[in-house]
Each structure stands twice: as structure tokens, then as C-alpha cells.
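Inverse folding, one chain.
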């Protein structure tokens, strides 16, 4: 919702845990929709499940959740832009308290929207860990917040990480026949699928357009805007030295230009443990126990 820089004041009022060298562990559950669900406490009263969203910032709650939250007070309604369209409205609540694991934040702003990942009441972004190294450990089902890079990272591969407009991008390769097409992907833990390709790039590569369509799907963004996609299958997808076989890939049906970025979603992300060093400009990946789990084809 808001850029990292606009929310940096939150971290000045976080618990003394930040000053400790020991990493902070925040447990999560991996949902059937490949989302990371974290239990939080709002205003020391309301317990909720929030999706940890690597392609978002700030904190949002769904309309269904806010109906049952006793401690929120909304101050105004804003007009906001979302993935699927413009002209959406969102109620805004300032000056809230958020408890996230052993961390507590004051003066937290909360926005309201229609949807989040299935089974979650809303979402929060990476900006709550600004200036820290964030580890996503799917084997242990923990977010681990480090002051610095861990001294031991055995088995991890170092990949370039680009930080553009408050978003995290890394490069992957699509294997189609004898061709390997390299492209930049947004790291998007809120997207349940594997890969979603941007319209312009698909238009430039007829190999992708000629892939057989195996299914179609209708997506909704946080405000209920509907987006239709087609799904095909790649022979392989490359992330660093890792090679994933028979990976589903989706692209939008309809007007060219709607989907402007390509997305690396939860069905790929969950197959690796991640150490994200935004300040250093790198991400470290390690194949985990889910590496060979079947991909969703729906």
C-alpha cells in the first residue's frame, strides 16, 4: 500500500528485540493456496491470521475481518489503485498497535480491502522488517529476522536481487524446447500459482504463445477486480542452478498491457528456503523438502 520509506518510522518504536543479536523467529503456516499465514495481535485485543506478502507493504485487513475486529477505528476513506484496476476505495485506520511474534509496533496504519489469501484476514509486507535480513524457512515454517547475514549459509546459492519501486525482482529462465528465455520476475508470495508472465514479454516471444493451453482461471485482486488467465506448461524453469521440471506458467487473456510485470509465485517460492538481503542486493536460495512436490494444475 505504502512505500517502505513512508513507513520507516514504525521501526523506531519496535520492541527492544531489535537490539539483540539473536535472530527473531516468527512461525507461519503454509496454506493450501501456497500463502504464508502468520498469527498477529491487533491493539492487544484482536487475534488475526495475516498473509506475509513479499510484493506488498503496510497492513491491510479484509472487509470480512474488520466486521469482527473490535479495536479498530476508521478515520477516512481513500481512493487506491490495485493490481486489477483503479477507482477502488479503502477505509483507513491510524494509530494501531501490532504484535508480530515477539515484536510490537506502534502507530500502525491499517487499510481495508475485499480479499486476501484464502484462510487469512489480511496481509502485511516486508517493510515491517526494513533494514533487516529476512529468512523464509519452509522446512521449519519460520520467518527468521536477522540483524546481519547469517555466518553459516551452507547449501545456499547467491543470486542478484533488484529493488525497484519497493518491489523485489530476480532473474529466472524459461526452457521451451531448445530455447532458454531469461527474464526478470517479481517475488510475489501473495500469488498462489507458479509463474505469471507479463503481456509485453509474451507478445515478443512467439514460443510462449504457441505453448498448448491446459486450463484457464479467473483471478481476483484485493478489491475484487476480475482477471482471466490461461495456463500452459514449461518443460523446465531455471532459478540459479536449480532446475524445476514441468512448471505451469500463466498469462493474461485480453488486452495487451494489463499485466506489466512477470511474477514468481508461491508454488515456486515454497520449493526453496530464502534469505533476502535487500540492502546488500542479493537473495540466497536453497532447495528444500518441497522441491519435488507436484505443481498445482488448477
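Residues assigned per position:
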Amino acid at each position: 500500500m505504502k512505500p517502505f520509506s513512508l513507513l520507516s518510522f514504525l521501526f523506531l518504536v519496535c520492541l527492544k528485540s531489535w537490539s539483540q543479536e539473536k535472530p527473531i523467529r516468527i512461525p507461519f503456516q503454509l496454506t493450501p493456496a501456497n500463502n504464508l499465514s502468520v498469527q498477529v495481535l491487533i491493539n492487544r485485543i484482536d487475534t488475526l491470521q495475516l498473509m506475509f506478502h513479499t510484493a506488498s507493504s503496510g497492513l491491510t485487513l479484509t472487509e470480512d475481518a474488520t466486521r469482527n475486529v473490535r479495536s479498530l477505528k476508521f478515520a477516512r476513506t481513500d481512493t487506491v489503485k490495485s493490481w486489477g484496476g483503479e477507482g477502488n476505495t479503502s477505509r483507513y485506520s491510524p494509530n494501531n498497535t501490532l504484535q508480530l511474534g515477539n515484536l510490537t509496533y506502534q502507530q500502525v496504519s491499517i487499510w481495508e480491502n475485499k480479499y486476501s489469501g484464502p484462510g487469512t484476514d489480511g496481509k502485511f509486507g516486508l517493510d515491517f522488517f526494513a533494514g533487516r535480513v529476512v529468512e523464509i524457512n519452509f522446512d521449519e515454517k519460520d520467518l527468521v529476522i536477522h540483524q546481519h547475514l547469517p555466518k553459516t549459509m551452507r547449501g545456499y546459492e547467491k543470486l542478484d536481487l533488484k529493488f525497484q519501486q519497493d518491489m523485489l525482482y530476480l532473474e529466472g529462465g524459461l526452457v521451451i524446447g531448445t530455447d532458454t528465455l531469461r527474464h526478470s520476475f517479481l517475488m510475489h508470495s501473495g500469488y498462489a500459482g507458479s509463474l505469471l508472465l507479463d503481456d509485453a514479454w509474451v507478445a515478443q516471444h512467439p514460443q510462449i504463445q504457441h505453448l498448448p493451453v491446459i486450463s484457464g482461471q479467473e483471478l481476483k485482486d484485493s478489491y475484487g477486480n476480475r482477471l482471466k488467465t490461461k495456463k500452459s506448461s514449461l518443460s523446465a524453469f531455471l532459478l540459479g542452478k536449480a532446475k524445476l521440471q514441468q512448471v505451469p506458467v500463466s498469462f493474461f487473456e485480453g488486452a495487451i498491457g494489463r499485466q506489466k510485470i512477470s511474477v514468481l509465485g508461491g508454488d515456486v517460492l515454497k520449493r526453496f528456503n530464502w534469505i533476502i538481503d535487500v540492502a546488500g542486493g542479493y537473495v540466497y536460495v536453497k532447495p528444500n523438502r518441497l522441491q519435488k512436490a507436484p505443481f498445482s494444475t488448477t
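The mean pLDDT is 87. The chain has four helices and 22 strands.
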